[in-house]
Amino acid sequence: MFGKGIFKGLKITIGHLFEKKVTQQYPEERPVLPARFKGSFDLNVAKCIACGLCSNACPNHVIKIESVKDENNKKKLTGYKMLAEQCLYCGFCVEVCPTKALQWNHDYERAKFFRDEVNLDLYAKYTPSPDDDKKDIPEKNVKPEEKQDESAKAS
After folding, report:
1. What is d(CA 25, CA 32) in angstroms, rounded to the nearest whole number?
2. 80 CB neighbour count, 10 Å cutoff
3. CA-based nearest residue to 93, from 53, 65, 66
4. I need a surface site. Which of 60, 67, 78, 140 has the fewest CB within 10 A?
5. pLDDT of residue 134
6. CA 15 to chain centre
7. Which of these, 73, 144, 135, 151, lies nearest to 99 by C-alpha position?
């Protein structure tokens, strides 16, 4: 019969007319994001060792790291900038970070009016917390005598 397809389509459309609405009113209702959502970047400056692996892993070379050597000849981070307007958001920089200092966050509202505001200065935006000084991995309780025995065995 001619027009069977039209009636099938109208049947489906009318069926959806009486279902529960799924539209979110965006500014008032925030979407529930999954735990693995990739929005923007967060940097824990206290964890960062300024190794430069993230800038080397970036295919577009959008990460610029500034560092100085301290009195113990260790690198200390002094600046971390990302040209987010050219970023692919591929996540290579997050994956390669050995200390997990660079992480994804749930910030999905990244639209800006001026192009210069899109770029991220993760070092300047960092706010230190009291937990930064604490070690992630506690040292084992080793007596001083055992340390001397281990160093003597190594010699």
Report:
1. 13
2. 26
3. 53
4. 140
5. 54
6. 43
7. 135
